[in-house]
């Protein structure tokens, strides 16, 4: 039966078979190189098999190369360190003063599987949540409170953010309010008020 089949494919069939074998041999080194996934020290990989997460724990460097050879599996790389720059956000304070706040949020993904499975884009969602949390916390404080101490609102932002991103596998390492800008008219008013207070003390 096999001999009859081989005789029935004809000359064109043999040419196509030989060309396919030749193509496989030529592209074999390239395909093997494409199957190798190199995971860096600061990255974590989540392995999917037919759309399902293969393991409840993310793979680290040197643990995931064998998975890329088996089909069908997808490997999603995730950077566990997240630094969000909240540059010059306009915030309306409690005493109706519009300020511009420059802040930085440092986060770390402690569970890459939760970060991939529970939210579509963890970096984008974290950035939007950080903006909203910063506005809501600083909006409950006056300008004098913000200028007097930035540690208290930073700790409040960190506590709210941690409670909101716990099921995302995120953990806030540090919140920093780097700089605060106020309008020039408000700066002149504050300077005049301070000058008047100094004159009153001098008298």
UniProtKB/TrEMBL annotation:
Residues 34-194 form the Band domain. The keyword Transcription does not apply. Keywords: Membrane, Transmembrane, Transmembrane helix. The chain crosses the membrane at residues 14-36. It holds the Pfam family Band_7. One of its GO terms (cellular component) is cytoplasmic side of plasma membrane. It comes from the Eukaryota. InterPro entries: Band-7_stomatin-like (IPR043202), Band_7 (IPR001107), Band_7/SPFH_dom_sf (IPR036013), Stomatin_HflK_fam (IPR001972). Plays a role in the regulation of glomerular permeability, acting probably as a linker between the plasma membrane and the cytoskeleton. Belongs to the band 7/mec-2 family. This is Podocin. The gene is Stoml3.
């Amino acid at each position: 039966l096999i001999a009859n089949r081989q005789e029935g494919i004809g000359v064109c069939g043999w040419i196509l078979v030989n060309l396919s074998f030749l193509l496989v041999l030529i592209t074999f080194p390239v395909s093997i190189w494409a199957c190798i996934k190199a995971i860096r020290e600061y990255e974590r990989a989540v392995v999917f098999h037919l759309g399902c997460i293969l393991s409840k724990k993310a793979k680290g460097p040197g643990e995931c190369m064998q998975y890329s050879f088996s089909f069908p599996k997808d490997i999603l790389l995730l950077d566990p360190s997240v630094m969000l720059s909240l540059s010059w956000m306009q915030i309306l304070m409690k005493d109706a003063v519009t300020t511009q706040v420059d802040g930085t949020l440092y986060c770390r993904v402690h569970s890459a599987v939760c970060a991939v499975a529970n939210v579509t884009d963890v970096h984008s969602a974290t950035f939007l949540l950080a903006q909203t949390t910063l506005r809501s916390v600083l909006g409950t404080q006056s300008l004098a409170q913000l200028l007097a101490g930035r540690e208290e609102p930073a700790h409040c932002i960190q506590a709210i953010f941690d409670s909101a991103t716990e099921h995302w596998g995120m953990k806030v390492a540090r919140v920093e309010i780097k700089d605060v800008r106020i309008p020039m008219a408000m700066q002149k008013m504050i300077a005049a008020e301070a000058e008047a207070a100094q004159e009153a003390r001098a008298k």
